[in-house]
């Protein structure tokens, strides 16, 4: 059976006509309650956990500062209630945010409102944040001070506390490495009973607290060592994959923000040459990765239907062709990279030069396009 690519193309043309009537809507809350903040169900950004089970809890609290966080932990400890932390988007796939227990008697502490800047020491290049601040908010706040967190995950919807708890990282072998926790120089945690523990640079326990999976307490505040803002220069180059493994090591040690994507079925590999430049370098490039943007739900449905037909008919040639079209489209369009300063045609070719804060992370998937 022939691949349904002509049908998909027709669907894309038809969808272009209805784009003006679309709107964006935020995702549903990850905690839903039947009565105020009581009798709740916890999920995640994916709307499901691998085991398909449901996490039920007795209540959720939304502290907005450390004193409210202390009160929540103290009261739950007095009731001998299990408690866990959940973030605004609860991005983790594992069910780490569920306090456990078949009777649903646990408490969820949301850091959704713990999302501010606590202190700025511009001279030392340090900033202290509440743990629930999203990476997007953190990057923007640091940029306003002329500072930058050098290495981060690629999606900016994750929270600072969540990144640390799960050992999140970027892609680099430079400096201390690309793990976010390597740039933590101070933390404040609220531990069982409501006691506040402050850890500073040089404290042995800080190493354990940086990547704790939330087992040592609720992270209240985090102090990061940042760098002066800089710019980045990047381009994507495609090569055949024969022998490419022999250059991976040298590529990683000479390209600070380098990345590569291997397409074994297509026999090619994409190297992203990505280095830093002085802030004075010209360029206003940005990164708004296509894969993280809000997507037309009907377009996604059509694409998945085409994939399902190819799978059901065991049409391997069609599957390979569809995959190649998708990759080619991503590469030719820049994959969301922008260098045309707000014009309708966002991408005019490589290289891309822009502030680190505008390139290091992206994601508009906090909103979803719907009909």
Q: What is the average per-residue confidence, as pLDDT, rounded to a whole number?
A: 86
Number of helices: 9
- Report Rg: 23 Å
Share of helix, binned: 25-40%
Beta-strand fraction estimate? 25-35%
* Structural class by sheet pairing and helices: alpha+beta
Report the biggest beta sheet as strand number plus sense, adding barrel if it closes: 5 strands, mixed
Which overall shape is indicated by the principal axes computed on the Cα atoms? globular
Total E-strand runs: 20
Please give the order of strands in the largest beta sheet: 2-3-4-6-5
End-to-end distance: 31 Å
- H-E order: HEEEEHEEEEHEHEEHEEEHEEEHHEEHE
Provide the number of structural domains.
3
Note poorly predicted spans: 1-22, 367-371
Describe the structure using short key phrases.
371 residues; alpha+beta; Uridine Diphospho-n-acetylenolpyruvylglucosamine Reductase, domain 2; Uridine Diphospho-n-acetylenolpyruvylglucosamine Reductase, domain 3; 3 domains; five-stranded mixed sheet; five-stranded antiparallel sheet; 9 helices; 20 strands; 27% strand; globular; disordered N terminus
Overview of the structural elements:
This protein is an alpha+beta fold and 371 residues long. The protein folds into 3 domains: 31-110, Uridine Diphospho-n-acetylenolpyruvylglucosamine Reductase, domain 2 (2-Layer Sandwich), CATH 3.30.43; 117-228, Uridine Diphospho-n-acetylenolpyruvylglucosamine Reductase, domain 3, CATH 3.30.465; 231-370, no CATH class. It is built from 9 helices and 20 strands. The protein has helices at residues 5-18, 66-78, 135-144, 160-165, 204-210, 248-254, 297-312, 316-332, 356-359; strands at 23-25, 31-35, 38-42, 55-61, 83-86, 107-110, 117-121, 126-130, 147-148, 184-191, 195-200, 218-225, 227-228, 231-240, 259-263, 268-277, 286-287, 337-338, 352-355, 368-370. A 5-stranded mixed β-sheet has the order 2-3-4-6-5, covered by helices on one side. Strands 7-8-12-10-11 form a 5-stranded antiparallel β-sheet. It has a 4-stranded antiparallel β-sheet with strand order 15-16-14-19. Strand 15 (259-263) and strand 16 (268-277) form a beta hairpin. The longest helix is centred in the last third of the chain and has 17 residues, at 316-332. The radius of gyration is 23 Å and the shape is globular. The chain starts with a helix and ends with a strand. The relative contact order is 0.14. The model is unreliable at 1-22 and 367-371 (pLDDT under 50).
